[in-house]
Each structure stands twice: as C-alpha cells, then as structure tokens.
Amino acid sequence: MKRATVFAALSAAVPYVAAHGYLAQVSIDGTAYAGNVPNNYQGPSPIRLVSDIGPVKGASNPDLNCGLNAQLAELVVPANPGSAVEFQWSGGDHQKWPHNTGPLMTYLASCGSTTCDKFNGSDAQWFKIDQAGKKPNDDSQWVQQDIMNGDSYTVTLPQDLPPGDYLIRHEIIALHLAVTKGGAEFYPACTQIRVGGSGSGKPSDTVTFPGGYSDNDPGIFDPNVFDAGSSYTFPGPPISNLAAASAGITPPASETATFPPEGATPSAGSGSGSGSGSTASATHVASPSASAGTGSTAGTGAVGAAGTKAQCRLKAPTNSSSSASNVNRPRHYSRIMRRILQLS
C-alpha cells in the first residue's frame, strides 16, 4: 500500500518539476532573434542567457534582475520609439509555456553611458511600461493562459523613449503556489536593444531588482488567487509616464529565428517604429561574457577580447551521454525525489 502511495506521489511530482520555461524568441518590427535554451549556448542572441528553466524564488533574490545566473548577451539589436516587440515563451524541451495563473509585466532600463553588452544590470533603474493580469472580459482567466496556449505577447515601445541602449525586462510571475508566502515563481528575461529616434521623455517611478517587490506584496503572496471573482493587485511600481503605446496577446510567432553566424551584425528589419531622427544600428561582440548573476564584466575592453566561447558557456555535463533534457532539469527535482522516497 505504501509503495502505491509512493508511485502516486511520483506521478504527481513529475509534471510539476518539468513545468518551467524560458523566453525562446524576441521579434522587433518583424525581425526575429532566437534565444538560447538555458545552459545550452548555441549562438549569438540579444536575450541574456540563463542557467536553468526553473524559476527565481524570493523577492530579494539577486537573480530577480534578469533571471537565473543571467549572462551578458552578445547582440544589441536596433529598435525605435513605437517599435513592436514580440515575446514568445517556451516550456522545457520546446513544449508550450506550462503555467496559466499570474501576471505578465514589462520594464525598461537605460544602460547609461555604456553599451548593453557590457552593462551590469544590478543597479539598473527599471520603469514599468506594461502589465497584464486577468482578462478584462473574464476575470476567471488570466492573460497568461493565452501564453500557455502558445500565443505570443507584443508590446509597443513608448513613443517618447529617448535614444540609447536599453534592457527590456519581460517577466512572467506564476502564482499557482502563491497561496503560500514565498511560493510565487518569477521568470524575468532581459533583451538588449539600441533605440534610435529623438525622444526626450524622462521615466517616472523607477525601481531596482531586487528591491521592486516584497514577498508580502498582495500580488506575490495571494491566498485568494484561485477564488472566482477575486481582484488582483499588481506588484511593483505603477505604470511609468513612459508607458507602452499598446500591448496585448498576439498569434504565435510566425517566423522561427535562427542564430546569426559568428561575427555577423544583425540588420534592422523593415521597421514599423514611429520615432523620428536617426535609426539605431546593431552591436555584435565576439562571445558572451563569462560573468554570471548580475552580468558584470571584469575588463574594460570589448567582451570578445575578454574570453572565448568556452569561457562563456556554463559548465557542461561531464557525462558524454547526457542529453539536453538532462540539462533542463530544474534544480529542485532532487529535493522532491528525496521527499518522495522518504515515504517508502
């Protein structure tokens, strides 16, 4: 009987530990850029590589900035005020995004006087340009359900956004465990862009990450999250005066991005951004930074001169028979298994 109990617990745990994901692709004005599978570098991307498909846990976790052990990305890709930025999320093993409860939020932060491929985001001043929670015509469902169905989410950059390099922090918070304090799962992802045009806006209500959220925030610890008709309070700052011109669910990405060749510089697409003035150009550096966490870099020279591709990749499995699915296994898998086996 006890053995049956163990098997039942195992059956319940297996889908749970596999239910995580990552930002797989970003498209800007129709130009698509692939994101690397976590801990599996394949090619240059503007999306900062993270170490695992699992979530960031805890509002004071330094990884809340750009994701688990996020590394500097190689590309800084062109955009303009009014550019349409499409985010396509994926579950582990290239499945669909696995969660359907919780908000989507999008932030921007200027990389200041440096380029974003060298920018340490730990002190970035983030301002919120968009947030989406429950569906306006059905408060029993979340917009995140559409991401789970395979759709993408598109945000139009603020019309008065000043030129320069920016990180776009697009985040999903999964609240299926948020009935317990500390149960919320954070999935932040950062994309490096270079904005052209001649905007002159100054963002209000900036925050840092960590620092922008608390584990006690009602939108993070929410005992009523599954109650029909309950209201939801977004965590973090209010929408900035530099807000997204529009945002919403869009069909699944129509173009599957591939990685550009080493050393190639991506060109801007047709460009639907409405900003006036100069158009931003892209930056490509030779290889991603070996630094983890905040994305800091030890040298002042180009990232390509600081290290090789072997240095930038996270540690690969020592067993040559290991597969990509093993790489993607969430770190808390073993803890769950130990708990299950204690029942026997």
What does this structure look like?
This protein has 344 residues and is of the alpha+beta class. 12% of the residues lie in helices and 23% in strands. The strands form 3 sheets. Strands 6-5-10-11-3-13 form a 6-stranded mixed beta sheet, with no helix packed on it. A 5-stranded antiparallel beta sheet has the order 2-1-4-9-12, with no helix packed on it. It has a two-stranded antiparallel ribbon with strand order 7-8. A hairpin with a 2-residue loop joins strand 7 and strand 8. The termini are close together. 47% of the residues are buried.
H/E topology pattern: HEEEEEEEEHEEEEEHHHH
Mean pLDDT: 81
What is the alpha-carbon Rg in Å? 20 Å
What is the global morphology? globular
| Derived structural class | alpha+beta
Profile the largest sheet. 6 strands, mixed
| Unreliable segments of 5+ consecutive residues | 1-17, 286-344
Fraction in beta strands: 15-25%
What's the count of strands?
A: 13
Instruction: Report the total helices.
Output: 6
Distance between the termini: 10 Å
The strand line-up of the biggest sheet is 6-5-10-11-3-13
Q: Give the % helix.
A: 10-25%
